[in-house]
Amino acid sequence: MALPSPSAFSADPSVALLLAQSNPGQQSADNDADQRSLSPDSENTNGSHANSEGSMLDIGPPYTQLSSRPPGSNSVRNIDSSAPTRGRKRPLEDHTVTVQRTARRMKLSSESEQTMLKFILASEEEQNIMLLGLILQTRERVDQIQPATAAFKLPQKLHDQIEKYATDVLLCPELSAYCKQPTKILLDIFEHHPSWGYTKDVKTDVRKSNVVRVRIQNRLTDRRNSIKAAIARSLGTVDEQGIRTGFVDIFGLLEDVIRQVRPQFNADMGITLLMCGRFAFLRGTYLAHPGLNFWKEVDIALENVRTEFKDRPKVLSLYFKRILENDLRNYGQVDLDDLEETTPTSEQVEVNAFATGNLEELEAVSDEEDAAY
Hints:
By secondary structure, this protein is an all-alpha fold.
């Protein structure tokens, strides 16, 4: 908006009125002139009212408003200081620096900083609406927050059984896959023994069952890594002439694996003929796929074997026998006759039963403790 000219501003009657109000001594001297200029009955030389809108400078809000005097009154209009005023948005420059400093100090996002700037420029009514919206939003979010619950602590007995069975399941020669199947087998076994801590309440509680599942998966991952490292060590090294040295036979490989993944239960772990055939298979697969996807490649190879020899168990047995014979030729002969007399541990028997699905030989419950559940 263009600024008013100085002459028009000085001639405006409302300006004279404001000056008279701020200088009471001058009011009586200029009273007659003021009354003539403000009277609605007085006319200017052109026959028009002196207070017509065309000749008035609107200096209304946000200053003060002039009260209306009764028609025909010759008194000067008083300033009505109680009249409501419209709020004016304060310039952005007034508080920009303060907003920026506050946002930095409180580590607010740039979006929150812009919201603060909008808030200080809003009228009082708009600010109230914004604050109400924020309060309602906060209340709705609080209603969605679930009360904190105490963390589920794994029972010590279940913890110890996970340590033991995480090894036994990966040493099982009947395992059809190494990446996903072991977790399911262990959960089925622990459900069979509720006295260990995997009760119906734990199983049906998502939060508690996840604690058990995560512990199992973590231990299986550790065990798989240890087995893979033992297989890699068993191969020895190959020199520039392509001659392999430092390798170990199949017994040496299995003994190393047991020491690494089952040290506290080493004494009662028996090496079976089927275990030798399975680890000969794993060692041969590692030679072809020694990378990060080793266990995935093992699962693919086992799936191909099952598909090829489906419903032909004798041929499948001959297949793993051939793999073991090749391993013995490459990495050293061992006496396999003694393995025929090896008695599997109760844990090995149980894992084999759950791995193959042949649960008929297993009792409904293993002891009196489990019967109580």
